[in-house]
Write a structure and sequence with these properties.
CATH architecture of the largest domain: 3-Layer(aba) Sandwich
Largest sheet: 7 strands, mixed
CATH topology of the largest domain: Rossmann fold
CATH class of the largest domain: Alpha Beta
Structural class: alpha/beta
Number of strands: 16
Strand order of the largest sheet: 10-9-8-11-12-13-14
Distance between the termini: 30 Å
Number of domains: 2
Oligomer: single chain
Number of helices: 8
Strand content: 25-35%
Length: 314
């Protein structure tokens, strides 16, 4: 097998290669003066099982286009199979028509990945699991939960309640509560705009408890910070937030600095600069993705990576 990396998250790609024990594939990625991307694969891939690692985090369009160009180069270089490894699948929030005359961009991205040459998809914590159905090629959907669970278990949290900051994350929160043997609660919210949400009520008992909020994605941190403010008013003690993909912009960082969240636990699916004034713990999913890549290459079962402590992660 050969593993190549785009420019979106080279440290994760290198960590995956280190786990597997292979060298990262050599390729040159540059830009023409007008901004067009140029790619040259600098080693032979004829007949190889190729894995291309690229998160579609900001700049999303640039990273997506770079991935399409790299896959086209690999396909024309006669790679036998190309697996697109997307630790973070961008545009996943646009997965349905929730208002008139809007696109379903998650489906468009799926079509473009296949058209560019992907034979298989490996991704992690999709915003909506039904996105797997947008593909007519095999999709291996991993969860960061086993990595999160190992870290949380070492913290030995007592009087724990797992909280979903919105209705959509209830299934994930239930899985965490089962594994961590804690209670379960939910925050009812109303989204005012893409940047602003309003938390309205807490369903469940959280007074005097340690609270763990779980979500798949945060960008502006509006959902997490408004939910944490409500939870604090309702008597929560320590508030932790567990988020698979923390794609924090300036507004999100500023909100977290002012919030009641004591610690944000996330993964390295996306790369970001160091942030002052916020306690962020970044856990690596390189081992999880590396193990999945090894099993796909050897045609072994990937199912056991979805399971831990006797139960599924979703």
């Amino acid at each position: 097998m050969k593993i190549f990396s785009g420019t979106s998250n080279p440290p994760l790609s290198r960590a995956i290669c280190e786990y597997i024990g292979v060298e990262l594939g050599k390729c040159a990625i540059s830009a023409f003066p007008d901004g067009e991307t140029f790619v040259k694969i600098e080693e032979n891939v004829r007949g190889e099982d190729v894995f291309l690692v690229q998160s579609t985090s900001p700049p999303s369009n640039q990273n997506l286009m770079e991935m399409f160009i790299m896959m086209d180069a690999l396909r024309r270089a006669s790679a036998t199979r190309i697996t697109a490894v997307l630790p973070f699948y961008g545009y996943a929030r646009q997965d349905r028509k929730d208002q008139p005359r809007v696109p379903i961009t998650a489906k468009l991205v799926a079509n473009l990945l296949v058209a560019a040459g992907a034979n298989r998809i490996l991704t992690m914590d999709l915003h909506a699991q039904q996105i797997q159905g947008f593909f007519d090629i095999p999709v291996d959907h991993l969860y960061a939960a086993p990595v999160m669970y190992d870290y949380l278990r070492k913290k030995d949290l007592t009087d724990l309640v797992v909280v979903s900051p919105d209705v959509g994350g209830l299934k994930m929160a239930h899985a965490y509560s089962q594994v961590l043997e804690g209670g379960l609660a939910i925050v009812a919210k109303r989204r005012k705009s893409a940047l602003e949400v309003e938390s309205m009520a807490v369903i469940g008992e959280i007074r005097g408890k340690n609270v763990l909020m779980v979500d798949d994605l945060t960008e502006t941190a509006g959902t997490l910070t408004t939910a944490s403010a409500l939870l604090k008013r309702k008597g929560a003690k320590q508030i932790l937030a567990c988020v698979s993909h923390a794609i924090l912009n300036d507004l999100g960082v500023e909100r977290l600095r002012k919030s009641n969240i004591d610690e944000l636990i996330t993964t390295d699916t996306v790369i970001r600069p160091a942030i002052d004034g916020v306690k962020i713990t970044t856990l690596s999913v390189a081992g999880l993705l590396g193990e999945a890549i090894k099993r796909i290459n050897s045609n072994s079962s990937v199912t056991s990576l979805f399971e831990f402590k006797g139960g599924r992660t979703s």
